[in-house]
Amino acid sequence: MKKLTAFALIALALIACKKETKTITKVDPKTGKTETVTVEVSPEESAKPKAIADSSGVYKQKFILEKGATYPLVSYQREIQSLTAPDGKTMSATNETTDEMSVTVNDFKDNIYSLTLNMTGKRMSNSANGKTMVIDTKQAAPKEDALKMDYLVSKGLAGNKLNVKMDAFGNIKTVSGFDVVYNNLKKAIAGTVKDKKQQDAFIESFKAGFNENMMKEQLGKNLKLLPSKGAKIGDKWTDSEDIVPGKVKQNLTFTLLKVEDGKAEIGLTGVIPSKSDKQTQNGMTHTMSVGGTESGKIIIDENTGWLLNQNLNIKTTQKESVTDGKQTQTMSKNSTTSIIINPAYK
Q1: pLDDT tens across 29-86, in order?
Q2: Dist CA 244 CA 250 (whole Å)
Q3: What average pLDDT does range 135-158 have in this prediction?
Q4: Taking the CB of residue 181, how many other CB atoms lie within 10 A of it?
Q5: CA 212, CA 228: separation in Å to the nearest integer?
Q6: Is residue 48 within a helix (H) or strand (E), and if so which, with residue range?
Q7: How far apart are the C-alpha atoms of 286 and 299, rounded to whole Å?
Q8: Which DSSP letter does residue 205 get?
Q9: What is the mean pLDDT of residues 84-102?
Q10: pLDDT value at residue 24
């Protein structure tokens, strides 16, 4: 009995000496770059409630964010395309886009967070036929005339801020501040687009893709990652979104894989169902088919509820043919796309 007691005391001592750690991500407010570090958690902090909370094996997500803190929301996308032309020749191109953003917590009152979405910078590059063209808001304007308008638009957006109201469960209530963004963008293009009517038309067109509804939807997808009712380890839930509005939907399945070491991990698989479209006009028949798959992983900070990292891979195949009944020309395009949120996370 004494030996057993001694072993028990040693085990308790080892447990007591084991220090709890957590991973935090810091944002440099000047560059927008992130740094991920592991720090020790004090006994007082370890006793605090967790954002990914377990109740009878069911995990729910909420946000426990620090007032004055800034959290990263950097988006990186790389698309590699391979095109086979009707003559059998193959061409390839790589497009990369980085949107540097972060979110600062201003206040938390009545279960609502007051946040500032900081649009820090944007970089785009296209590589094809041995040549690379780059647009970077932190660099001088590109020399290519074809890129200058895109540069002005990106430059006009960089440095802007939006005001976000979000409840503790990740529901985006409002996003405001767009009029300031539109005005700054109008000023940015004024040197190139001289005609006022053309300026107004451009801004109206821009508003169609950059507005409150779009930002609420995008932020919601990036932040609210567990279902409202919660999920057990191994539970699955589904979602779908339009790839081609009204024609092609992407069906997604999420699985809560594990919650440990201060992180919740979600696996994702998706299918873009094969879809064909056939149209005949003036004796010519055009046929197009598209399909694909998606897979990836999402990691959430168990202590804050914030998205630490999302890494998705999408593969699509598109085939087209045109025929007059006598001759047929075919073309195919294979695309591999990587979408990463907070790529600095290790």
Answers
A1: 455 555 656 666 555 555 567 899 888 899 999 999 999 999 999 999 999 999 998 8
A2: 9
A3: 91
A4: 19
A5: 23
A6: none
A7: 43
A8: H
A9: 93
A10: 55
Sign of torsion over alpha carbons 211, 214, 220, 221: negative
The single-letter DSSP state of residue 140 is P
The helix (run of H) or strand (run of E) holding residue 27 is: strand 21-27
Give, in order, the Cα–Cα distances in Å from 160 to each of 151, 167, 228, 343. Answer: 15, 23, 32, 22
Q: Supply the pTM of this predicted model.
A: 0.81
Among the residues of the chain, which ranges form H helices? 2-17, 43-46, 145-157, 178-189, 196-207, 212-223
Report the candidate in 76, 129, 80 with the shortest Cα–Cα distance to residue 316.
80
Spatial CA neighbour of 65 closest among 164, 161, 168: 168
User: What is the pLDDT averaged over residues 170-177?
Assistant: 97
One DSSP character per residue, 148-198 reads HHHHHHHHHHTT-EEEEEEETTS-EEEEE-HHHHHHHHHHHHTTT---HHH
Average pLDDT value for residue range 195-218: 93
What residues have CB less than 8 Å from 68, skipping those under 6 apart?
Answer: 104, 105
Residues constituting the chain: 346
Contact 236, 227 (CB under 8 A): no
For tokens 């000496």, name the residue: 17
Token pair for residue 81?
């395309």
**Which neighbouring-strand residues pair with 282?**
none
pLDDT value, residue 103? 97
Sign of the Cα torsion 172, 174, 180, 184 reads positive
Pick from 187, 193, 181: which is nearest to 148 by CA?
Answer: 193
Q: What are phi and psi of 213, to 5 degrees?
A: -60, -45
Asked whether the beta carbons of 300 and 344 are under 8 A apart, the reply is no
